[in-house]
Amino acid sequence: MRYRYSATLILALTTVALVPASAQTAAAAKPKAVGTAKVKAPFRTADGQPDLQGIWSYATMTPLERPADLAGKEFIDEKDVAAFEKSLRERNNKDRRDGGTAADVTRAYNDLWYDSGSHIVRTRRTSLVIDPPDGRIPPYTPEGKKRIDARIADRKARGGDPADSWEDRNLGERCLTRGAPKLSGGYNNNVEIVQGPGYVAIVQEMIHETRIIPLDRRPHADPRIRNWLGDSRGHWEGDTLVVDTTNFKPGIIATNYNCCGGAAENLHIIERFRRLDSGTLDYRYTVDDPTTFTRQWTVSLPMSKTDGPLYEYACHEGNYGMTGLLSGARAMEKKAAEQAATGKK
């Protein structure tokens, strides 16, 4: 369930002298042209900063990694866009009834509850990953694979049940964080950017997480201080906002919603935000974690202006779903033990 933002966030933003986001009209999200357009107007805040303010949607049908059947094809031909989007809708259809009961339950909600975008990105790319050129996330390093295998081995040593403990569930499901940057998902694919003298605030709709980013080139916090969203520092390079983030909690490995599944405390992310026109924000981020990935990799995720307000995604750890999941697993274990004791199947 979602609610309008509370006064808590408003107070937090006022504390750092942030100003209200300017109202803009929503722009169509349908793909238009390959390449990066030039800024058509000098969008500026009252103090002369490039104006990135507003609510932006990054919902898209474009997959994070290039599908195997499109290997070697960086862009979808304009004449093939409609067919490609139709194939993606069919592939992601939650209302399918093939695969039996288990598959049906795994798909969770039906399509009515999803708002993951109705078009691919306007650049017509076949993947959000633009570097490496193959559109795929690089392989894990031996160290990264060893760390991930150790987690799997630990779970197996405890019986292998993904519901042995709440700690076995990912951080998004536990309502702790979706990480930053957050990937485009099934719904709530919106961020709000608010600017003020010396600061930029970026609010994620999902789990209502906020990063308040100083722009004075101050050093990062002590490496011993770790946060789910990391420690962000920003600066301007021309009209581009560059955000450098370090100091992530190593537990971020436990969420499959954030940008860099498998990453650890050495994760370093560089984000770039640049306004192209009244309704488009060019957004890119580069992942650098040499202890996890064999090379850096970059994602391009254009955002479209959307009408507000931004709603709060209400989520809290210890929710009824988690209680039901864990108690259900214990009930299944008990039943299996009783059947084993009596020789029944």
3D structure, described in words:
The protein has one domain. The strands form 2 sheets. Strands 2, 3, 4, 5, 6, 7, 8, 9, 10, 11 and 12 form an 11-stranded antiparallel β-sheet that branches. A two-stranded antiparallel sheet has the order 1-13. With 345 residues, the chain is α+β, with helices and mostly antiparallel strands. Helix content is 19%, strand content 21%. The chain has 5 helices and 13 strands.
Alpha-carbon Rg, integer: 22 Å
Largest sheet: 11 strands, antiparallel
DSSP summary: helix tally: 5
Global shape = globular
- What ranges have pLDDT less than 50 throughout 5 or more consecutive residues? 1-37
Number of strands: 13
Question: What is the SS-derived class?
Answer: alpha+beta
Calculate the mean pLDDT score and round it. 81
Helix content: 10-25%
How many independent structural domains?
1
Terminal CA distance: 41 Å
Which band does the percent of strand residues land in? 15-25%
**SSE string, helices as H and strands as E:** EHEHHEHEEEEEEEEEEH
Q: What can be said about this structure in brief?
A:
The protein has 345 residues and is of the alpha+beta class. It is 19% helix and 21% strand.
Keywords:
about 350 residues, alpha+beta, eleven-stranded antiparallel β-sheet, two-stranded antiparallel sheet, 5 helices, 13 strands, about 20% helix, about 20% strand
